[in-house]
Design a protein that fits this description.
The protein has 360 residues and is an alpha+beta fold. The protein folds into 3 domains: 114 residues, Efflux pump adaptor protein, beta barrel domain (Elongation Factor Tu (Ef-tu), domain 3); 54 residues, RNA polymerase II/Efflux pump adaptor protein, barrel-sandwich hybrid domain (OB fold (Dihydrolipoamide Acetyltransferase, E2P)), CATH 2.40.50; 144 residues, Helix Hairpins, CATH 1.10.287. Helices cover 49% and strands 22% of the residues. It is built from 4 helices and 13 strands. The strands form 2 sheets. Strands 1, 2, 4, 7, 9, 10, 11, 12 and 13 form a 9-stranded antiparallel beta sheet that branches. Helix 2 packs antiparallel against helix 3.
Length: 360
């Protein structure tokens, strides 16, 4: 009798287990019709590297490991003595360039005045030539009359010689004035050339001012780079710098983990992607906080499988081929509107999460 009683209990327990298993199986099957999930997913945030832009020795570090900072907060400073000297040198160069421009402009004014004087001399010489030509014409006409009178013995030789001398004097005066005009024209050309040179020197002086101003701007910009500030709100990673350490441009020192954007990269099997699309709602549970549930939205699909972005992508054309299901990274964005902002801050890049995509 005791044996039969034991068999009834066993059958009852076994039946309950079968019922529970069947119920769970049916639930998972029905759930799978409208959901796709994976536990191959990690939290991601922007990790902004702190990279100095100038060379120098660190004078002071204002933050510690894991500190929270705001955009614009000073992280550390670099010795700025050399950069202050460069700024002062650039300012002196700018003052010298401005002085050279003033001198060049003064030379242009003087050259322009000389050009005007030369043009006046040329015009004056032209008027004198006309006067000399008239005098020569009158003297030549008098000489012709006196020559005819002298041939007829109507005047004395002295009167003839005076008329001849007057003609020669008028001719000589005309030649002198013509030579003066040529000299004035040559002087004008030389003055114009010097004026053009002065104008070019003014342009060069103006260009030197722009160059000096650019050098000053660059020096002041490098001086501002000696104060390194946070570019975003976030949390500092481990810091490995200290006062007195020499840093170089492009050297990554530490990171600021931004709190402005958070997303999940879930690696789904290629066989799960058939009904998935952008905009679908996703439920997320973090391994670190199993009691907290987050919601997100599918925002994009990777253009290639994760294997294609590996250091050594597989080449199926070589060796023996074994078909392996590939995984495709899917980006799932989380926002503060649909989630608790304080709870989101608890999520750290690299944390494992489970994702459940609502297909319908």
């Amino acid at each position: 009798m005791e044996k039969k009683k034991t068999n009834k209990k066993f059958i009852l327990i076994f039946s309950v287990l079968i019922l529970l298993g069947a119920t769970y199986g049916i639930y998972k099957y029905v759930h799978s019709l409208s959901h796709e999930g994976t536990d191959d997913a990690q939290v991601e945030k922007n990790m902004n590297p702190i990279i100095p832009r100038v060379t120098g020795y660190i004078t002071k570090v204002y933050v510690k490991d894991n500190d929270f900072v705001k955009k614009g907060d000073t992280l550390f400073t670099i010795d700025d003595k050399d950069y202050v000297v460069r700024v002062e040198d650039a300012k002196a160069a700018l003052i010298a360039a401005e002085a050279n421009l003033a001198v060049s402009k003064a030379d242009v004014g003087s050259s322009q005045a000389n050009v005007s004087a030369s043009e006046a001399n040329v015009l004056s010489a032209g008027g004198n030539i006309e006067t000399a030509r008239i005098r020569l014409k009158l003297a030549s006409a008098d000489f012709e009359r006196y020559n005819n009178l002298y041939k007829n013995h109507s005047i004395t030789k002295q009167q003839f010689e005076q008329a001849e001398a007057a003609k020669l004097e008028a001719q000589s005066q005309l030649n002198i004035i013509q030579n003066q005009q040529k000299a004035s024209s040559f002087q004008k050309s030389a003055t114009v050339a010097r004026n053009n040179v002065s104008n070019k020197q003014t342009d060069v002086a103006a260009a030197n001012i722009k160059r000096a101003q650019a050098a000053l701007d660059a020096a002041e910009l490098n001086l501002s780079y000696t104060v390194v500030t946070a570019v975003v709100d976030g949390q500092i990673s481990k810091i490995s710098i200290q006062p007195g350490q020499l840093v170089q441009p492009g050297q990554s020192l530490f990171y600021i983990i931004s709190n402005q954007e958070i997303w999940v990269i879930a690696n789904f099997k290629e066989t799960q992607l058939n009904k998935m699309a952008m905009g679908q709602i996703v439920t997320i549970t973090a391994d670190a906080y199993p009691d907290a549930e987050f919601t997100g939205t599918i925002t994009s699909f990777s253009p290639a499988t994760g294997a294609r972005f590996s250091l050594l992508p597989p080449d199926n054309a070589t060796g023996n081929f074994v078909k392996t299901i590939q995984r495709l990274p899917v980006k799932i964005s989380l926002d503060t509107k649909n989630n608790d902002a304080e709870a989101l801050k608890l999520l750290r890049p690299g944390m494992n999460v489970d994702v459940d995509v609502h297909l319908k």
